CCHC-type domain-containing protein
Amino acid sequence: MSTAPPAGGGLRPPDLDTTRPPDVTMQSEATVPTTGEAQKSFKEALGSSSSTMGLEVDTELVPMEGDITSEMTDRGPVISLSDRFRKRIHQQWDDTVIVKMWGRSIGYRMLCSKLQRLWSLCGGFRVIDLDHNYFLVKLADREDYMRALTGGPWVVFDHYLTGEPWQPNFDPASHKVTSVVAWIRVPGLSTELYQLAILKEIGNRIGQFLRVDYSTQKTERGRFAKAAVELDLSHPLQTETCVDGVWYTIKYESLPNVCFECGLAGHDMSHCPARLPRAPTQSASKHMDASPTMDL
């Protein structure tokens, strides 16, 4: 599990835009040339799937002697990189966030248009479209990078936008989102219990507490307490908590497909593996075949 850096620096998230437009047309930035148009080079084709918003494109690294070596094997050519050159490559992605919409796909252009306001970006940024609806967002400003990782939850069209630090050899086909920063609510919690220490204890029992929302901190909302918590989606989510002898229900905002049978995210109760009938074993099948039948 990739754990986001702890919240800090007094960064306050922007107002979340959860207004859903009537329809969103999902489209890719890459275009297919029509008849008569010149074919794009490989480098131009790569550039068509990324967008640079006030951020200079990375300069081409010039390897030093010994940085790149190669040899032929029976299986094919083997290219090897020196530790020094690999480190230089990785440094170009230091302030990059891996982004994915949780529970819904989002178009490339739509994401680009949302990020500026959603993350309250101060510097430039570059978006690269990957397979399986993953995106790389490279940020020019270090504070923007930290805000993107720790300033959530980020909600677009009532769905969470997950972000995690870039990692080498990232494979969109096999990568799984194992954590998400989400808002949790405790409906009915008495207003006098809106104490940071109490909410922090609840948050840390169901995940990693990050902060409370500002209206809750000022006890301006009498209906429920609300806190941002990093949840581990590979473990069952807690559905209830007891505070000072009283049990309360825990609600998870905008988190789709949470099963309250087993507590795991990714499916609902009707598709819970724990509730589905198990296939009979081979010995059980033979026993059933040998059993007498009853005519009704």
User: Anything to note?
Assistant: The longest strand covers residues 179-187. Residues 30 and 48 are 5 Å apart (CA to CA). The longest helix spans residues 108-118. Residues 1-48, 283-296 have pLDDT under 50 and may be disordered.
